[in-house]
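Dear colleagues,

For the upcoming journal club I promised to circulate an example of a predicted protein-ligand complex. I picked one with zinc ion because it came up in last month's discussion. The inputs are reproduced below in full, followed by the predicted structure.
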Amino acid sequence: MKNIIYIIVLSVFSLKVNAAAYSTCGSNIQKWRTDYATLHLNSHTMPIGGVWDLKTREIINQWNNDGSKFEFRIAQDTDTTYNKTNGKTEIIIAKLSGSDGAFLGATYKRSVCFTGWVNVWGIVEADIVMNSNYPWTSAPYEGEADAYSFGLVMNHELGHALGLNHISIGLEPNTMYPNYPNGGPVGHYNQATPLADDRLGLRILYPKNSTVTDVAVSRYKKGTAFNNSVLNMSDQKVSSLLTGFPYKIEYTALNLGTQEENVTINFYISSNSYISHSDTYIGKETFNLRESDVKNGSHEFTVPTNLASRNYFIGYSINVDGDNTNNDFVSLADQVNINTL
Ligand SMILES: [Zn+2]
């Protein structure tokens, strides 16, 4: 039997799609057979050195440092348009129209699948279009909705270009969730980066050839970016706490690296959003995170009685040897008010 399949993957706005993490052709995974792909960045709509160009390169660099042997290479495209069937993988900001007009972004992926007397498969082209119908920002995502995070959507679309499909919404933040903000960013700086399960997915397609040590924390706990919160002992969200009383702080820890790590999360109350070891310490949690693991947990603590009545930030930091990235600490999005009895 012969057949050739052209797959188009659309994303990201509100379409609910449940799919496997990747496509197959016969018994083979659909992927780039070369273990690399050259991305042609459109310098007409993303001028070289401008915010869109720089953000795109930043996200490409994130995917290139996940421990898999796959590599995105970068070239420039200087015309004003793109072509879904020219064999060239192009990234452009352009108007999506018709049935695609509502999507924030789209990846038009073309794969070949031929089974029979000989098997031929593989991705041959994957154009990424960032929809110019929407307002974009190159600033990190902080939960706002007046402009969409270019980094988060580019992160998701590059996952498609690599061969990853949507996964259904679960408990862990995941870049390949179909809905914006696609699992959200990590760390104090709200960095858009491939999340734990997505990185493992890439290493399944393109086996790992290097070791990466990288653990991270997030203020978000689900694909729809629900904030972690402070809870009372009845598990109700609270924003006003009393000194001397017990509460719980929800947290999310992610292993973005290539091997199991034993991690410690330290919890703090801070007068500012920048959580550091000099803030008021309120305990720790220690556990193992296997490769690609995400832990959504909660830590029980008692508000120290020596804190003055006022607003505070509350947050956490994660530690493991050999990890020097800046995604290791974060404060919850919402401040809490602490009162002395
Ligand atoms: Zn998508």
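Two points we might discuss: The longest strand covers residues 120-131. Residues 109 and 126 are 4 Å apart (CA to CA).

See you all on Thursday,
B. R.
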